[in-house]
Amino acid sequence: MAPPTAITTAFIPVHDPRASAHWYADAFGLGVVEESDSSSVLAGSHGQVTLMGPKSGIHVDPGLPWATCNFRVDDLASVHERLARLGAHPSDELGDPERCLFFTATDPDGNTILVTDR
């Protein structure tokens, strides 16, 4: 029997994978697993994100108006404050406390990122 399908990473296009890796690490407390001029990989407790730069061959420009993944955090308010200090322009907190609370923000490359409480 074949193993179940696993989702292993989400991709975000960036201009400078090394600089972006450190921004995401600071913003979300993620660990930088590897970094290069073409891509960088960050890992959290339940998955990873790959930041793809122009040298990777990806044909997507940074500045996505929609989130390619979400970042689930334990303390939405403190991450909202941290992202505001980092200049990420977080939106108001939205959603339903019984289902999911969330907000969006913008990374230094203009990509929309989604932050959720579950």
From TrEMBL:
PROSITE patterns: VOC. CDD domains: VOC (cd06587). Signal peptide: none annotated. Residues 6-118 form the VOC domain. Pfam families: Glyoxalase. It comes from the Bacteria. This is VOC family protein. It comes from Microbacterium ureisolvens. The lineage of its organism: Bacteria, Bacillati, Actinomycetota, Actinomycetes, Micrococcales.
